[in-house]
Write a structure and sequence with these properties.
The chain is mostly helical. The chain is about 75% helix and about 0% strand. The two termini are about 20 Å apart.
Length: about 240
């Protein structure tokens, strides 16, 4: 099977599963909801008004990780991977189609989320929204979509390696919510190169670390590429 039919087949799998559609909705709702709450805090926008508007990405990325994880983990249940590989014998092509089918809807949802968050968070922030320019807001909205996509793909790669949604979520979520903050407090600039922190630099109006908005996303992209390469290797080497 050529790549385009394989991609179409993987897209059908995603759009016909309620949990996957719900996962995309959760990315939008979690990001916008928590961002609005943070922006409405009268003291929340003092340090960095732009990041206050996009604070909810911290929680939206968890939904993105869940989406990427469940999309891949479904293949390791009930012999689904055998059926997929029977249709697409080239494992690298199948994995590329799976990854693309994850990336495209998350990117579309992420960009929508970014601009909705900018509008809602800016309104909630009120007069403090003047603390950043329109260009800063657009850059953060686009960066929001890219960051969420990279986190979903990172999760997809890790899940392909571990072959378990529980194991992947159990590794990534505590790392993002706990370990990243602990390391950040203890290691200074070293934490700037962690995947979640590096990617979120683009959401800040000002930053003091070693990375800028786009170099931070590049670092996250390198983490994601490494995870996907490991996942592709695992798919090629392991029996279905």
């Amino acid at each position: 099977m050529a790549f385009q039919p394989a991609l179409h087949a993987e897209w059908i799998k995603i759009r016909t599963l309620r949990s996957q559609v719900g996962g995309l909705a959760a990315i939008l709702l979690a990001t916008v909801g928590f961002s609005a709450l943070a922006a409405a805090d009268p003291e929340g926008g003092d340090a960095d008004p732009l990041f206050s508007v996009f604070f909810g990405v911290t929680f939206g990325q968890i939904a993105a990780i869940a989406f990427g994880t469940t999309a891949v983990a479904a293949e390791f249940q009930g012999g689904a991977l055998r059926v997929s590989l029977a249709a697409v014998p080239r494992r690298g092509r199948w994995f590329a189609a799976k990854v693309t089918a994850i990336a495209l809807p998350v990117l579309a949802t992420g960009l929508t989320t970014g601009f909705v968050t900018l509008a809602v968070g800016g309104a909630a922030l009120g007069e403090k929204a003047g603390g950043f320019t329109t260009a800063d807001g657009v850059r953060a909205a686009v960066g929001c979509g890219i960051h969420l996509t990279l986190m979903a793909l990172l999760a997809a790669g890790v899940t392909a390696v571990l072959r378990s949604a529980v194991a992947a979520v159990g590794l990534l979520v505590p790392f993002l919510l706990i370990v990243s903050f602990v390391i950040g407090d203890l290691s200074g600039s070293l934490a700037d190169f962690l995947p979640d922190r590096a990617g979120q630099v683009v959401l800040h109006g000002r930053w003091d670390g070693a990375l800028g908005p786009w170099t931070g996303l590049a670092v996250t992209a390198l983490w994601t590429a490494a995870a996907l390469a490991a996942g592709a290797w695992r798919v090629r080497r392991r029996d279905a």
